[in-house]
Amino acid sequence: MGWDHTGEQLWPARDTPGPVLHEQPGPDWVDEVAVAARTLLLSASDLPLVLGHGDWESQNLRWVDRRPRAVHDWDSLIAQPEPAVVGAAAAVWPAGAGSRHAATVQESEAFLDAYQHAAGRTWKNRDQRLAWASGLWLRTYNAKKDAADGGGPQLDLLANEVDQRRRLAGL
């Protein structure tokens, strides 16, 4: 979620052990998409910040009778615009569930729709774009980590969806 980091490099520090991301070459398309998503997200500095969970993945959620009972891993607390918090969650919520690594575009879309329905409002175009850009930023960050580690499922999954996610973010 560190698109708003204060460093001069594109990528924030890794949240897992491994090579420093800004020292790793390519893939160029991952870096280019990350720059576009980050630029859009940084343009939202006029929006109010909300507190949210920055690691909304299945292994951090506990459910009882189809109702959420607990959210773990609160060291991932973030303060970002609401669409950014929700968009990131929409992009990765199934991660950690068996072999799942991220949400499909359709699952992300359903998550965003369900959130707006539960909140009792429909987001304007700008908020929709910010949500998709936030999810895309998080997915590029995970793909970059995979690339730096020699490849992996995050990179492969994003390669198959990047054009559709870019379009939904208006990039």
TrEMBL record:
Q: Which domain of life is it from?
A: Bacteria
Q: Which SUPFAM superfamilies match?
A: Protein kinase-like (PK-like) (SSF56112)
Q: What is this protein called?
A: Aminoglycoside phosphotransferase domain-containing protein
UniProt source species? Jatrophihabitans lederbergiae
